[in-house]
Amino acid sequence: MKERIKRKKIFYVPGMISLVLIPLFCFCHFYKVDAFKVYGGMDLAMPPSDQNYFEEYKFKTLRKYKEFDFDVSELGNKRLIEMQFYLRRLKMNRDTINGVKIHLGSKTRYETFISSIDIISLEDAPTWIIDDNDIYVLASSNTYKKTKNEVAGHAMNCNTGEMMRQQAYWEQKNKKEEEERIFQISFFKQKWMLLSLGYFGIVLLNIFTLVKFNKNR
Fold first, then answer.
1. Which among 153, 149, 94 has a CA at the least distance from the CA of 127?
2. Quick one: which of 69, 73, 94 has its CA closest to 82?
3. Would you state the pLDDT for residue 3?
4. Which of 29, 45, 164, 171 is most exposed, with the fewest beta carbons within 10 Å of its own?
């Protein structure tokens, strides 16, 4: 029976570089270029530039506006909540005397603007308009009343709307995947020299380490 020979343990230093340093370098680079940042958007309709509805309907003097100033560096969540409850009260009371004026400026954060639009949409404000850095929101006293001889109508659902929604969803998904693929291709085209140098550097380091190990052996 042959006696087992104890051999010296081999520590593969270049392998640790590949496993630890390179992933850390990649993550630092990706965070630096905002590769993990997810962008979003929302639909926003604006009136034609050739028609000044704001001046035509005299929005600035239609109501006694309570101003909510968001031209500050802080987000102002308390101010947003206060504005939401005030707008809700105007709508519930069908107030045609008072209104809401939202002022934005250079110090306003983008998420504050989006939150303001979300509140207007959530509270289903009857009328609102953007004028430069201000948003004017108005309540309404109008209520829908049925006439005596009104005939109730019923819509027929043939599932066309659902099919169109699914088609739009898949088109949007395919478009996003195509944009991501194009981005990845362009990224590797821009960084191929850096990646190639890193790869060949690791190869040369491995060869040098193995040659040195064999000589010492």
1. 94
2. 69
3. 66
4. 45
Query: Which residue type does 117 have?
Result: I
- Contact in structure between 79 and 68 (CB atoms under 8 Å): yes
Q: Give the span between the Cα atoms of 161 and 143, in whole angstroms.
A: 29
Q: Which two tokens stand for residue 46?
A: 């604006």
- Our CA angle for 8, 10, 16, nearest 5°, is 160
Nearest partner of 131 among 76, 73, 60, judged by Cα: 60
Query: What percent of the chain lies above the pLDDT cut of 70?
Result: 65
pTM beyond 0.70: no
Q: How far apart are CA 198 and CA 23, in angstroms?
A: 12
- 37-76 core/surface letters (b: 16 or more CB in 10 A; e: else): eeeeeeeeeeeeeeeeebeeeebeeebebbebebeeeeeb
Cβ neighbours around 94 below 10 Å, total: 12
- What phi and psi, each to the nearest 5 degrees, are found at residue 207? -65, -45
Please give the Cα distance from 14 to 159 (Å, whole number).
61
Residue 94 identity: R
> 101 φ, ψ to 5°?
-120, 115
Q: What is the pLDDT of residues 169-211, one digit of tens each?
A: 788 888 888 888 787 777 767 767 776 777 777 777 777 776 7
**Beta carbons within 10 angstroms of residue 30's beta carbon:** 13
